[in-house]
Amino acid sequence: MKFLLVFDFDHTIVDENSDTWIVKCAPERKLPNGLRNSYQPGHWTEYMGRVFVYLGDNGVKEDEMKRTMTTIPFTAGMIDLLGFIGENKELFDCIIVSDSNTVFIDWILKAADFHKVFDEVFTNPAAFSSTGYLTVQHFHAHHCAKCPKNLCKRKVLKEFLDKQLERGVSYTQIVYIGDGGNDLCPVMFLKKNDVAMPRQGYTLEKKISQLAQSLSPVQCSVLVWSSAVDIMSYLKLLIKE
Questions:
Q1: Is the torsion defined by CA of 53, 57, 58, 62 positive or negative?
Q2: How do 126-128 and 134-136 pair as beta strands?
Q3: Known active-site residue 162
Q4: 78-87 and 228-240 helices, crossing angle to 10°
Q5: Which listed site, 61, 104, 192, 208, has its alpha carbon 20 to 30 Å from 48?
Q6: Residue 158 has pLDDT above 80, yes or no
Q7: Half-sphere exposure for 200 (CA within 13 Å, toward CB)
Q8: How many domains does the chain have?
Q9: What value does the CA radius of gyration of the chain take, rounded to a whole number of Å?
Q10: What 3-state DSSP class applies to 195?
Q11: Which one of the listed residues 8, 93, 183, 194 is annotated catalytic?
């Protein structure tokens, strides 16, 4: 009996958007208007690439970025929740599927000593170039019209589950914890026995309730959370059963 916990990262594990948090490193802690207005829907990774070039051009170094990123606050109750999952790893496999990047997530989890809680992290690959600039790439290519060009979380989840099945691992239940519009695609892939946990007041919750109103509800159960304590209460019930 094993459960799979799937976490988004921004506004779920941490209470901010890690990509916009890095702007604190910019001169006067803001981006020039031209750069800020250059974002095109569905092309966030390219936009962040330009932000990292701007930071590099302004002499922002890796250690300063790391210092800034490790001050990002965790969502209320999240530290307790991750501690609880860490103590019960024999029952929970735990993955992150995020549109952030490997460098940011790695820094933040390692600084708080939570990297061992997660079995795998699926996010956009990032690295520092020989000139000290942070670069970011698309996670993968996909054919899903609903998702941003660089990442379809449903595809990631499906491929992970297929790989686990090949290893002989199947899950009693999948619990998907997220907040954003790009979390809807994987939630719609969940089955009747699974649980989607959208964050209260965020896009994912609104989209799930719109689907229910148009009489095409998601198959899985839906439990809304506002603090990670709500998630922990549910997991405690799950392992008692």
A1: positive
A2: antiparallel
A3: no
A4: 20
A5: 208
A6: yes
A7: 10
A8: 1
A9: 18
A10: strand
A11: 8
Q: Which domain holds residue 93?
A: 3-18+71-239
Amino acid identity at 53: V
- SS3 category, 191: coil
Q: Rounded to an integer, what distance in angstroms lies between the CA atom of residue 239 and that of residue 44? A: 38
Closest CA to 228 of 97, 75, 94: 75
| 179 is known to lie in a ligand binding site | yes
93 is in an annotated binding site: no
Left if phi > 0, otherwise alpha if psi is -120 to 50, otherwise beta: which for 136? beta
The per-residue pLDDT for range 3-35, each reduced to its tens digit, is 999 999 999 999 999 999 999 999 999 999 999
The whole-model pTM stands at: 0.96
Q: Which amino acid is at 77?
A: G
Residue type, 149: K
Report if residue 128 sits inside a domain. yes
Tokens of 31: 């981006």
- The answer to whether the annotation marks 19 as part of a ligand binding site is yes
Pseudo-torsion of CA 5, 10, 11, 16, nearest 10°?
150
Say if 53 falls within a structural domain.
no
CA 59 – CA 68 distance, rounded (Å): 15
Place of tokens 């929740």: 81
Domain CATH number, residue 178: 3.40.50.1000
Residue identified by tokens 């992150």 is 96
Q: Region 108-118: what's the mean pLDDT?
A: 97
User: Is residue 51 domain-resident?
Assistant: no
Determine whether 106 is an active site residue: no
Residue 33 pLDDT: 96
Asked, for residue 29, whether it belongs to a domain, the answer is no
